[in-house]
């Protein structure tokens, strides 16, 4: 069963990511309005009826703007940490479910696991969504790579990976000093360079798609970011998740995934046998 992924919006003006199979789906964050979420999903041919839950990474407004209306209209369970739920506004209590680090949540055939990240929020979390043997990561709003992030990134077949700013553009840009320090201070956002180092050093051979996410409007260039990663991409498809519109829907095919993993294992085994001989 293939896994379908799409960015409905990605940036400081709103974040919302779709991950699903043929029967059910989840949204990670709900940072655009309910109406805009519906419109963008409809344009992509995605059904809100398949969405069975919303997972919230943290309480910043660009991640929860449309949450209350969306949850109430479709009676969707919202998975959110105890520390974050108090900042989520008018979401009915009966729709809120406690999200805990490393405690998987089963949504039909999808298993969603949250884990901590570095960000200046109450209890920020990243997510890995598993469908059978296929693993999708949602890794945005991260101040610095940590062991949690590295371990999960290295297991994923496709990821939404933050590449928020170009270091030179941020340094030379118009932002005040305090904001520049916040962005690059270890609990803000990942730079292109940090994200690229993650990609080069920890990408598994079978990773088929990377959607560069949460790019800054003022301190990054989508073309520059994509070209930077493309130089090291190999067979991995690189795209940029827009802050203005939805992405296309990408299909992560488990059969292709299994074949790529087998090829990777055969290469490692062959290298090992060569060393022994």
- The geometry reads as globular
Structural class: alpha/beta
CATH H level, superfamily name: Ribonuclease Z/Hydroxyacylglutathione hydrolase-like
Q: What fraction of the residues are assigned to beta strands by DSSP?
A: 15-25%
CATH uppermost class: Alpha Beta
Q: What low-confidence regions span 5 or more consecutive residues with pLDDT below 50?
A: 271-277
Order of helices and strands: EEEHEHHEHEEEEEHEHHHEHEEH
Word description of this protein:
The chain has one domain (3-276): Metallo-beta-lactamase, Chain A. It has helices spanning 34-44, 61-64, 67-74, 82-85, 147-153, 167-172, 177-184, 192-202, 222-230, 254-276, and strands at residues 3-9, 16-20, 25-28, 51-55, 78-80, 96-98, 105-107, 110-116, 125-131, 134-139, 158-162, 209-213, 237-240, 250-252. The chain has a seven-stranded mixed beta sheet with strand order 6-5-4-3-2-1-14. A seven-stranded mixed beta sheet has the order 7-8-9-10-11-12-13, covered by helices on one side. 33% of the residues lie in helices and 24% in strands. The protein has 277 residues and is α/β, with parallel strands linked by helices. It is globular, with a radius of gyration of 18 Å. The protein has ten helices and 14 strands. The N and C termini lie far apart (40 Å).
């Amino acid at each position: 069963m293939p896994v379908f992924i799409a960015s409905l919006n990605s940036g400081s003006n709103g974040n919302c990511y779709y991950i699903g199979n043929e029967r059910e789906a989840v949204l990670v964050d709900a940072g655009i309005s309910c109406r805009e979420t519906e419109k963008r999903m409809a344009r992509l041919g995605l059904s809100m009826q398949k969405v069975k839950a919303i997972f919230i990474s943290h309480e910043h407004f660009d991640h929860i703007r449309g949450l209350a209306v969306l949850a109430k209209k479709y009676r969707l369970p919202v998975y959110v940490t105890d520390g974050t739920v108090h900042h989520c506004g008018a979401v009915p209590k009966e729709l809120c479910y406690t999200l805990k680090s490393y405690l998987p949540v089963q949504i039909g055939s999808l298993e969603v696991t949250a884990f901590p990240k570095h960000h200046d929020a109450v209890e920020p979390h990243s997510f890995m969504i598993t469908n059978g043997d296929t693993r999708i990561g949602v890794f945005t709003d991260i101040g610095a790579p940590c062991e949690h992030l590295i371990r999960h990134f290295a297991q994923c077949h496709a990821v939404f990976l933050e590449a928020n700013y170009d270091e030179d553009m941020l340094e030379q840009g118009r932002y005040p000093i305090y904001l520049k320090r916040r962005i690059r201070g270890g609990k803000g956002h990942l730079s292109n360079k940090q994200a690229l180092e993650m990609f080069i050093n920890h990408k598994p051979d079978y990773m088929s798609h990377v959607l560069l996410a949460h790019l800054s409007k003022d301190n990054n260039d989508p073309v520059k970011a994509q070209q930077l990663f493309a130089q090291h991409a190999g067979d991995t498809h690189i795209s940029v998740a827009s802050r203005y519109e939805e992405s296309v829907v990408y299909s992560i095919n488990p059969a292709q995934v299994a074949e790529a993993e087998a090829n990777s294992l055969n290469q490692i085994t062959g290298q090992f046998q060569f060393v022994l001989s």
